[in-house]
Amino acid sequence: MADAKKFVDAHIAENKVIVFSKSWCPYCSKAKSLLKNENISYTAVELDSLDNGDEIQAYLAQLTGQRTVPNIFINQKHIGGCDAIHAIFHKGNCMCW
Predict the structure, then answer these.
(1) Taking the CA atoms of the chain, what radius of gyration do you get in angstroms?
(2) Does the domain spanning 2-91 belong to CATH 3.30.505.10?
(3) Which residues of 28-64 are buried (b: 16+ CB within 10 A; e: fewer)?
(4) Alpha carbon of 93 to those of 71, 84, 97: distances in Å?
């Protein structure tokens, strides 16, 4: 779990907007599409393409209390998932800029 912690913590620190995702997940696709359509630059980490993706997802669950993807962070703050990011944009409260 130490490697997963280092990986996650580094990616959160190094990226203004990061989406921990799975390539087959429709909610992940919806969240990433919203960011793309709003011209928000983001980094996506596709957990299903990583050998330790399950370990990373377990650490994210421990860190955030959220077991599902997408797991989104903006400015090193956990936002939540697909519904949360859509709610932020719907209210006009995006912290991305």
Answers:
(1) 12
(2) no
(3) beebbebbeeeebebebbbbeeeeebebbbebbeebb
(4) 18, 11, 10
Is-contact 1 59, C-beta < 8 A?
yes
Rounded Cα gap, residues 71 and 79, in angstroms: 8
Ranges of each domain in the chain: 2-91
pTM of the shown model:
0.92
How do residues 6-63 score in pLDDT, each as one tens digit?
Answer: 999 999 999 999 999 999 999 999 999 999 999 999 999 999 999 999 999 999 999 9
Residue 8 to residue 50: CA distance in whole angstroms? 13
Nearest CA-CA partner of 9 in 56, 51, 48:
56
